[in-house]
Design a protein that fits this description.
Layout: E1 9-14, E2 17-22, E3 28-30, H1 46-68, E4 77-86, E5 92-101, H2 107-120, H3 122-127, E6 132-139
Parallel strand pairs: 5-6
Antiparallel strand pairs: 1-2, 2-3, 4-5
Length: 141
């Protein structure tokens, strides 16, 4: 693969209760473990960052496949829900639910576009076979 862009971020402090900053400074956040995991909450956490990245990446892939199919993807919205929990082997695992709104597209076409975007999206390709990802079309004509 020919790399066309590399993002770099550094974590300091205590990981989930620390700080992250990208090399260019555009992302500069304190982190806190969520209350549900015994933390203080009140700051971003890695699952939120992953959800934001996956939602944005999948949305871009959806817009690309929509344009290729000449579908009206105006008003589309992608929400990513990232879950974390024990995986039964003494470690933790993740789940992802992608919820997609395509209000200007008929349901059958919307489902085809979402499936196609799942094949194009780099996050989907990175997670495929590693974590459970569910795709749901919430709104379509």
């Amino acid at each position: 693969m020919q790399v066309i862009y590399t993002a770099s971020a550094k974590s300091t402090g205590d990981g989930r209760d620390g700080h992250v900053r990208t090399s260019d400074g555009t992302l500069d956040l304190d982190l806190a473990a969520p209350k549900e995991m015994g933390g203080a909450g009140g700051a971003a956490n890695p699952e939120q960052l992953f959800a934001a990245g996956y939602a944005a990446c999948f949305h871009s892939a959806l817009r690309i496949v929509g344009q290729r199919a000449k579908a009206d993807v105006a008003g589309s919205v992608v929400e990513a829900e990232v879950g974390i929990g024990p995986n039964g082997s003494g470690a933790y695992g993740l789940t992802v639910a992608l919820l997609v709104d395509l209000p200007a597209v008929e349901r059958a076409t919307a489902e085809q576009l979402v499936d196609a975007a799942h094949q194009v999206c780099p996050y989907s390709n990175a997670t495929r076979g590693n974590i459970e990802v569910t795709l749901t079309v919430r709104a379509a004509r």
